[in-house]
Amino acid sequence: MSEHHHDHDHDLEMKKALRPKVERDTKYWNSLEQWSNDPEFNKIATTEFQSSPLREADDEGGWARREFLKLMGASIAMASAGCIRRPVQKIVPYNKQPEEVTLGIANYYSSAYFDGSDALGVLIKTREGRPIKIEGNPFPQSAGFRQFVFGCAQKKQHTSK
Amino acid sequence: MHRVFKRTAAGAMAFIGALMVTTLLTGCKFQPGWGYNKGYAPEQPIPFDHSLHAGTHKIQCQYCHNQIERTKHANIPALSTCMNCHLQVATDKPAIQKLREAYDNGDSIEWTRVHMLPDFVHFNHNAHIAKGVNCQTCHGPIETMAKVQQFSDLSMGWCVNCHRQPENKAPLNCSTCHY
Questions:
Q1: Which listed site, A22, A117, B29, B63, has its alpha carbon 20 to 30 Å from B152?
Q2: Is B139 left (phi over 0), alpha (psi -120 to 50) or beta?
């Protein structure tokens, strides 16, 4: 690690020696530090508009940012290259399958809905034993169809009050 | 954290990276059926052996997957179907005992799904059975598989290829499958 740094500093010295010498214009100045040729100011001014790699010794944060981004990008690329398979799905069958159940085909059951005064015929659509839809039984004798819709509307009115 | 890796280390990493990418490409991307999970053979909770049941004992596919002629799903048999035989057969094997335990407790077995189509496409099994398409045409030689694997890539091109043959008289409408 120390040898690493020594190598690095040597490079930096060479780079600094090769940098062009900037002549300062003493006629026009923006601040008192510039006018008085403050060494602090000069140090900042020479590297002000340089990109972060050239500013290695001066601005450690810039270089670290690049390295960080490179590592992040590489790791994301490698991680996403590994996500090819779709997630695992399970199939859970019945323990004892009821005879009337056919997977994917709905069974309709007729039932009655009592709204306090009338029994209205309803048709219940079930899939694998689970009811998913209730509608009025359109079979004429059951008087369910329109009555059921009417009854629901009434109920809604009552509850909204 | 200045230059993190020395030149030689960086070179080695680049080489290994290139090697990895090449392996990935030739092994996966350029294989036919890539991305479609062809050859997917997951571990099942009970190591059900099709080559024993369907191959050696020649049990019909539709004995267990019995609803395939009525509905669009090919059903995984209920545990009661297994117990039709396994209440007496091979009750000393640990796999059968595990099955029996689940059956007695009223639990079920969570099988891992092998063949899966995306949600925007609907495949109808009973239409194909009615036409006389063999199970093995799409699912491959299941009767030789100890562990079920996805034999075909189940891609749209593969399906349409068969539908296109004039002797099959199969519909080529988009809404046949995408509805």
A1: B63
A2: alpha
Within the 127-156 window of chain B, which residues sit less than 8 Å (CB to CB) from chain A?
none
E strand map for A43-147 = 90-91, 107-114, 119-127, 130-136
**Using the 8-state DSSP alphabet, how is residue A86 labeled?**
P
Q: How far apart are CA A72 and CA A35, in angstroms?
A: 45
What SS3 class is residue B96?
Answer: helix
pLDDT tens-digit map of B96-125: 999 999 999 999 999 999 998 888 999 999
Angle between helices B94-105 and B79-86 (to 10 degrees): 130
Range with lowest mean pLDDT among A13-22, B12-21, B155-164 = A13-22
Q: Report residue A3 as tokens.
A: 């040898």
**Secondary structure percentages of chain B, helix, strand, coil, to 5:** 50, 0, 50
Query: Strand A130-136 and strand B111-112: pairing?
Result: unpaired
Rounded to whole angstroms, how far apart are CA atoms B117 and B149? Answer: 15
ipTM of the predicted structure?
0.74
The answer to whether B11 contacts chain A (CB < 8 Å) is: no
- What is d(CA B64, CA B75) in angstroms, rounded to the nearest whole number? 8
DSSP calls for B63-82:
HHSGGGGTSSS-PPPPHHHH
A88 to A55, A70, B1, B72, B122: CA distances (angstroms): 51, 33, 41, 22, 19
Cα B176 to Cα B124: distance, rounded to the nearest angstrom: 9
Contact of A140 with chain B, judged by CB distance below 8 Å, is answered with no
Q: What is d(CA A124, CA A121) in angstroms, rounded to the nearest whole number?
A: 10
Ramachandran sector of residue B107 (left: φ over 0; alpha: ψ -120 to 50; beta: rest): beta
Q: CA-CA distance, A122 to A144, in Å (whole number)?
A: 6
pLDDT the model gives residue A136: 82
**For residues A152 and B100, what is the distance between their CA atoms, to the nearest angstrom?**
48
